[in-house]
Amino acid sequence: MAEPESPAFQVIVLGPNGGPREDHVTGLLVRSTSMNWVPGSVVAVDAGTLLAGIIRILKNFLPDAIDEQKRMTEGPFKGLQLPAKSAEANAAHIFREIIGAVLITHPHLDHISGLAINTPILEAGSGPKPIAALPSVLSAIKNHMFNDIIWPNLSDEDGGAGLLTYQRLVEGGNTRFGMGDTRGYVRACNGLLTKCLSVSHGHSKQRFHPESGIHHRVGSTIFPPDQYMLSSRAISMDQTDGSFYSPARSPHIPPSVSGPKESMMASVESSAFFIRDHHTGREIIIFGDLEPDSVSLEPRNKRVWEAAAPKVHTGRLGAIFMECSFSDSIDDSYLYGHLCPRHVAAELSVLAAKVMELRDPASHDKKRKRPASGFGDNTGSPLSPRTKSRSNPSFERSEPRSGDVRAVDLPNTLVDRIDSKDFAGVSDTVSWENADPLPLTGLSVYIIHIKEGLDDGPPPEEQILKELRAHAEEAHLGCQFFIPDPNQGIWV
């Protein structure tokens, strides 16, 4: 993309895909343009691809794009002074000196493998590199990767080598830090602040126990089968922007009445990082892998949209980086904790509704017109063929077929306390078809984690982008969708 006037951020997408190629999996670099490439002024968000992505980009521009002062004159690293001749040595310099910290959204291999393989080149004399994430994420990395079995313990805990240090983030933001708009944000690197909100990435039989710091199998003595299918992570009860209502905290919810198979499942925790430029106050959001609220055991995306809406409304949120792993040809039961275009559009419609409520608070009680087209059902959410058999958002569910993924049955006490539109889309909000501007005008949405096609057919990016733009036009969102080019910096 062309560089806009006075951008606050530059984002370099090192790994734009979700596999199966191991050299293109998720990894991004973010910097504040006000810091001008000083040491520690870049933060990596996920590290499935790290050095490999940096080397690939540098090789595309070296040795031609460098001046007498050894500064890059072209490409994503334009303006960066490089000390060496080879792309490999310069990539090591960038990792050691320029990248100040690594943020990890969740501990799946396609988001952390580069971190493991690359970390041994760090130098102990420079101090440990911070790895920041939610406690459950760092627990998985500590216990299952840097554990002297899968990989050497390179951290500064439990007698490790001291090349990495774990920074455990407070879910929803640490409200003891910052004031006003920066409340809850912590330092990510020189020039950037961050706040982390959890999202759901499907379900598994492992659940994080915050007291032990270990993942335990649901159905063990730690989590007996009669426990709720809800996460046990610590949650602030401060009902501000940094917290949320948790069914797990409610004493009025009886034990799950779902079948024994479903009672053995827990949500997989992933993350959404709000990254704020300290100089301008502008922000971007980078999501890890996530699933739509409409099929989640524990819907959490709405919290992210509630936090994002005021930033869209005031023009401070410039871009969202989010996954879209498959095209709309995928059935909901084969999403495995991921998104496809119809669900991306439905999630962004929730954000759009929140923005419109801020424009006109009185519109909160109005009804949105039902689209004449077949974009979705009466919930406002687009549906796959198998999803169409679902009932409306009363949370009454028919018996699932084998292999189906469905939301947990919520008891009436909870339905009474939470408006069903929070989970069902935007059916109860005012129409924005004729809004000027449309609710998400000016917002750029960059799609990452697309599953690569290795056959001779057209690349999946083309079909996904086509479907996304069609859904956005139909839903009158106003945002623009892009597939990032790893060889071009994104300016926001």
From TrEMBL:
InterPro entries: Pdiesterase2, RibonucZ/Hydroxyglut_hydro. One of its GO terms (biological process) is cAMP catabolic process. One of its GO terms (molecular function) is 3',5'-cyclic-AMP phosphodiesterase activity. This is Uncharacterized protein. It comes from the Eukaryota. Residues 361-407 are annotated as: Disordered. Transmembrane segments: none annotated.
